Amino acid sequence: MAQDEVPQENRPQDVARAPLSGDELALRRRVSDLEREEVGDVLREAAGEGRLSYAELEERLEKLYSSKTYGELIELTTDLPNGLNAPGVPATTPQYSGALVETGPVVNVFMSESKRMGNWTVPQRQEINAVLGDVTLDYTEAQIPFDDIHVDVKSILADVKIRVPQNAIVLLDSNPILGSVSEQEAGLGAVPDPNSPAARPKTFHIRGTAILGEIKIKRGPRLSKRLGLT
Predict the structure, then answer these.
(1) Cα 28 versus chain centre, distance
(2) Which of 1, 14, 24, 226 has its CA 20 to 30 A from that of 33?
(3) Pairing of strands 180-183, 214-219
(4) Is 162 helix (H, G, I), strand (E, B) or coil?
(5) Average pLDDT of the chain, as a whole number
(6) Is pLDDT at 2 greater than 80 in this prediction?
(7) CB–CB of 110/87 below 8 Å?
(8) In terms of Cα–Cα distance, which of 149, 142, 217 is closest to 185?
(9) What angle do CA 70, 71, 74 make, to 5 degrees?
(10) What is the largest CA-CA distance in the chain?
(11) Which helix (DSSP H) or strand (DSSP E) does residue 38 occupy?
């Protein structure tokens, strides 16, 4: 045996790496362009509320579009009220409940903000009037007792977001006037799971008028919900 040769049994062994936890895997998960867009909306809302200066907004947007993992997205929004939650940290989402009603109270927003999210009972008909404000209506965790839901939206220099279940049927009647009304496509995620019980999709009849404003219809739960972190 050569003098500098170490016997096989005396050689140091490679230390086995401990498997990554679910939280660590979630932080390393690669993100999509759609998820970056959702975080961009959070940053723009924060700037509109005065929580971020326009210089800070520009800096964070630059980092956002070069981000590759969920952990990087968390760092950009951790100090914002509507930011993403770190794995294992529960979300603080306003909860609503109420009796079954056919027509809900009109949502009137003027230079302010209104959000309805979490577990709430959906009325069959909802009217939204937004002027120089922001409205978010999230149906993805709500109790929807009706097969058909009617939403009438008027946005004047305002930003209105409506988030419907992934498999929802959306019948959109849009009337943008120097504004924008957009609908996210259903995509492959809307295909029913053959192993799950059959569920009849809800039909959303949405009539949107945007005058120098924006109405966005999105599908599926928020990013943190899709990752199972809240």
Answers:
(1) 19
(2) 24
(3) parallel
(4) strand
(5) 77
(6) no
(7) no
(8) 217
(9) 90
(10) 90
(11) helix 33-48
